[in-house]
Design brief:
The protein is mainly α. It is built from two helices and no strands. The chain has helices spanning about 5-105, 140-165. It is rod-shaped, with a radius of gyration of 44 Å. The chain starts with a helix and ends with a helix.
Length: about 170
């Protein structure tokens, strides 16, 4: 074998090796690209699911906020109704006292007693001997508490809505 033939053999072997490397390199690249595409699709599906979950949480938070608003409005109406009921009861009570004063022979026309046989109690909310102190008006303390709870729940629902939308 002379050196020319040996050179051609080496060149052919080198070309075969380069051809095999190129062939298997392309195959490996296609396989790698397919694997990356599958991973990207799975990531996209996971992100889509997360987005749907976030939208559902936002919808729930919005519904909770609306419910809290409805509850707060209902509590305001109940408070108003109870305040009106209390005012009606107070007016009826004062009317009964007035009727009793008219009926009582010991009380003159101005509402003052002639004989100090019965000591009159001051109306609720007024101190004895104090004429400028008005009776305490307002909602029942437990109703005030319920209104504050409703307001706090409304605030928490709004905060939950905004933090529920944030994804890291």
């Amino acid at each position: 074998m002379d050196s020319g033939q040996l050179m051609w053999i080496v060149i052919v072997i080198a070309l075969v090796i380069v051809g095999v490397v190129i062939f298997f390199g392309r195959k490996w690249k296609l396989k790698t690209d397919r694997r990356r595409a599958v991973e990207m699709r799975q990531t996209a599906k996971t992100d889509e699911l997360g987005a749907r979950e976030g939208e559902a949480k936002a919808s729930r938070a919005e519904a909770d906020a609306k419910q809290a608003e409805v509850d707060a409005e209902r509590l305001r109406r109940e408070a108003h109704d109870r305040q009106e009921d209390a005012q009606t009861v107070r007016e009826r009570s004062q009317e009964r006292v007035r009727e009793a004063d008219e009926l009582d022979p010991d009380v003159d026309a101005g509402g003052c007693q002639d004989a100090p046989t019965v000591e009159r109690q001051p109306p609720p909310g007024r101190a004895r001997g104090s004429s400028n102190v008005l009776p305490r008006r307002g909602l029942v303390p437990s109703l005030n508490f319920l209104i504050w709870v409703g307001v706090v729940l409304l605030i928490l629902a709004v905060i939950g809505y905004f933090f529920g939308r944030r994804r890291i």
